[in-house]
Amino acid sequence: MAWVWSACSLRVDAGCGMINPPGHAHPFDSTPHLPAAGLGGGGDGESTEVTLKPDIYAPEPACPEHIRKWRKDMAPGKICLHPGVADDADHQRLDTYGRSEPVGVKVHEVLNTAAKSYLIEKAQEKKESIYLSHKREPLGKSFVRGHQLPPQPGGGFYGYPTPQDVAGDETKHLMHPQERIIPEAERQLYVKSHSNYDPGEQRHRSYTWVDKDGTIDPAGYRFGANVKEGEKQGVAKAMNPALDETYVRPNIVVEKRLEDFRELALEGLGTAKNLGFGARDHASGVFGMPSQAGPEWGVRECIGNYTPDEQQPDRDLGKSIRPGWRNMAPQTRVFGVPSIRSDIAAPQLKSVADHQNYGDESGAGTLLYPPRFADGGVTQADFLAATSKEELGDIFRSAGFELTSEQLNETYSRAQTLDANGLVSVQSFRMALNGEA
Length: 437
What we know:
Elements: E1 3-7, E2 11-12, E3 19-20, E4 25-29, H1 48-52, H2 54-57, H3 65-68, H4 107-111, H5 118-128, H6 132-136, H7 170-175, H8 184-194, E5 209-211, E6 214-216, H9 234-239, H10 256-265, H11 299-304, H12 364-368, H13 380-384, H14 389-398, H15 405-416, H16 426-433
Antiparallel strand pairs: 1-4, 2-3, 5-6
């Protein structure tokens, strides 16, 4: 199918959104008699969904019954039977396998052997006394061998007692002898004979160290060469001389043929691999074929041919321009009813069925952080409401203030100066009483 352009004027198709530039050809099919390339979506059932879901649209046929017994079923919990007994259904008429046994001694009779009372326990002991094992090996006692031992005077034990001294038990001193402080002279003998040094003790070989200044004390002398002041990273510089600022790297001369091989065989970091095609003539050279054989129309040309006024949105975008169908309202007009009816006065007695907020209710901040006296049912408005002198005196006297009539009149007069209308509230009276007025 080949498309060509026919001459047409500039137009905007609102149905499909196609934009035709002015003075350019409109595409049309010049060979309508040729069939289209590719495969069309026919009704033969070969769709993407059918291909991806073969278990639903083309399930495999079930295995025949006479062949199923010869196949292994790997389903979880399925009992695998031998094909020879797969058709054996005689076991289905039996409830249990094996032979039933007559009921003999119950389990609780075997386990419950303890005596229930004192009389039953004595009767049980009498029955057990006839056995030889009970006589010679009584439970909880030593083995009875039938020996007749002579009586001991005073009920003492057999054998010879361990001699005890006046100081006390010698066994304790044998297990834990008293610690003896070893003298230094005796310890030095063990050091010389067995090299028994203390932990962390310096080993002395009794050498006599002498230098040009006299005798050397090994405990306070450091052996070795003197390190120059400021020399650091000596071992690191010895292993890597490039760390030294004064180090000059010597020139390394290698064979050019080896370097040429490395340049062609290896890939340099951050550089293109040299394929042996020679050096480029200039850095701005472009290799390969151009993407377009000639200038073609694209989005840039389509947008660039419009003036800024033509690129503005349509006049009917988001609004109606048809006379009689437009809702022209003032800019200050508000449609609907506000959620908080602060535009009307709140009723004096609000009904429990009235859920309207008249702007006098608390917000989320008051719910999260309630006032101090909210538990007693006292709000902030109660502190700011106008109150009479007698009620103010009763409130503050009940709070613990000892106010006389003269102090009440004087404080009430100072609180009246805080309000333009001369009204006094609990808050203003408190400020006047504290001297803040």
